[in-house]
Amino acid sequence: MLAVGPVVTFFTWWSWWTVAGIALTLAGVLLLASTRAIRDGTGVPG
């Protein structure tokens, strides 16, 4: 049972970084898409 703590901590840490990485990636993609749309003069949909 001693190994449960470190394992839970590891998976919590790993999942947190995974979520953060996905969020940052999505934000970067959206930022690039919107910047490209503005530069092309089409504007951002919506």
Describe this structure in words.
The chain crosses the membrane at residues 14-33. Keywords: Membrane, Transmembrane, Transmembrane helix. There is one protein chain. The protein is an all-alpha fold. 80% of the residues lie in helices and 0% in strands. The chain is built from 1 helix and no strands. The protein starts with a helix and ends in a 6-residue tail after the last helix.
**What is the distance, rounded to the nearest whole angstrom, between the alpha carbons of the first and last residues?**
53 Å
The total beta strand count reads 0
For the largest beta-sheet, the strand count, sense and barrel status come to: none
Total helical elements:
1
Shape, per Cα inertia axes: rod-shaped
Structural class: mainly alpha
- Overall pLDDT: 84
Radius of gyration: 19 Å
